[in-house]
Write a structure and sequence with these properties.
This protein has 254 residues and is α/β, with parallel strands linked by helices. The protein is built from nine helices and eleven strands. The strands form two sheets. The chain has a nine-stranded mixed sheet, sandwiched between helices. Strands 1-2 form a two-stranded antiparallel sheet. Strand 10 (238-243) and strand 11 form a beta hairpin. The structure holds adenosine-5'-diphosphate (ADP) and magnesium ion.
């Protein structure tokens, strides 16, 4: 039997490509789940930063959580210079932060006003941005913010929210894959859950979970690959560390 080796998108995160047998399968949609402060935004920024600087793969950061300037400042504090990438046209930050819904501000070219805010308009903006810099990677921070939008706009009358989320994710996956992008969808979760609605993890090609346990014998920060279609991967819980100047590093992965 012939085994076809899939093409990989190297994350550049120390140890992660090793435990994924070479990287994330290219063109796939991966969900990154974890509670607050577990390192999801750092992971996403590092994925784009390494991609642009080491593998010549420009990227798009879709920012639904906070002001882009704040994102850049936070990431710079750990040594990930997103502003520099922007200037070099290796990164476009799509500003669709939910805070804009409350305060209407003048934005840059890749900005959505509250009236324009929808899953479709975000996808259209990603497409435009991806074509401009020939992007190969995209990070959406976060899908949880998008699902708030799906909830408030209630897309299909008579359908459950779960079904709405499922359909939205099918559409997002299909469109991003057609653009040739390898995607990290960030999902904020509470406790041990892998998703908010119990369907998201089934709709994506892979799930990576980040955890922070502050008490007990297992205390510390951990990463685990819960699912990754079309590749073998480590099934262990890996201890991680935040390293100034780099970002996330997996401590033991051999
Ligand atoms: N400059 C830094 N040096 C070391 N650790 C940092 C630095 N900046 C942030 N962190 C760590 O990263 C955490 C935030 O990571 P972040 O990716 O923003 O989390 P999330 O997006 O999952 O909420 C902080 O709580 C802190 O523990
Ligand atoms: Mg975050």
């Amino acid at each position: 039997m012939n085994v076809i080796e899939v093409e990989r998108c190297k994350t550049g995160i120390e140890g992660l490509d090793e435990i994924l047998n070479g990287g994330i399968p290219r063109g796939r949609v991966i969900m990154l789940v974890g509670g607050c402060g577990t390192g999801k935004t750092i992971f996403g920024s590092q994925f784009l930063y390494r991609g642009a600087t080491e593998y010549d793969e420009p990227g798009i950061f879709v920012n639904l959580e906070e002001h882009p300037e704040k994102l850049k400042q936070d990431m710079l504090s750990i040594g990930i210079d997103l502003g520099k990438l922007e200037k070099e046209k290796k990164l476009i930050i799509v500003d669709a932060s939910l805070s804009r819904m409350a305060f209407k501000t003048e934005g840059s070219e890749y900005t959505l006003s509250p009236e324009q805010f929808s899953v479709d308009s975000i996808l259209a903006l990603i497409k435009e941005a991806a074509e401009e810099i020939d992007a190969k990677r995209v990070v959406v921070d976060s899908f949880s913010a998008l699902d708030t939008l799906i909830e408030t706009k209630k897309m299909h009358v008579g359908m459950s929210l779960r079904e709405d989320i499922r359909r939205a994710l099918l559409g997002i996956n299909y469109r991003l894959q057609s653009m040739g992008l390898t995607t990290i969808l960030i999902n904020d979760v509470v406790g041990e859950e892998l998703s908010t609605h119990g369907v998201e993890e089934f709709m994506v090609d892979g799930v990576i979970s980040l955890k922070y346990q502050n008490v007990g014998p297992d205390s510390g920060r951990h990463l685990m690959v819960k699912k990754m279609r079309s590749t073998g991967h480590s099934e262990n819980i890996h201890t991680i560390e935040f390293v100034p100047g780099t970002g996330i590093k997996i401590l033991s992965y051999s």
